[in-house]
Amino acid sequence: xxxxxxxxxxxxxxxxxxxxxxxxxxxxxxxxxxxxxxxxxxxxxxxxxxxxxxxxxxxxxxxxxxx
Length: 67
What we know:
This protein is α+β, with helices and mostly antiparallel strands.
């Protein structure tokens, strides 16, 4: 995520991911290896939101392009 969102602070990213986890939108996996590592993936609820985001993106392209 930091590569995609280079200007977000670690604190803000951590807060947002925690909120998304509490809302069951993402799943947090802790890997107990070398230095501890954490990975995130979309939970089923988060996956069900993808079509809505795609629809919003299409609406935006049609209605807001060039503004």
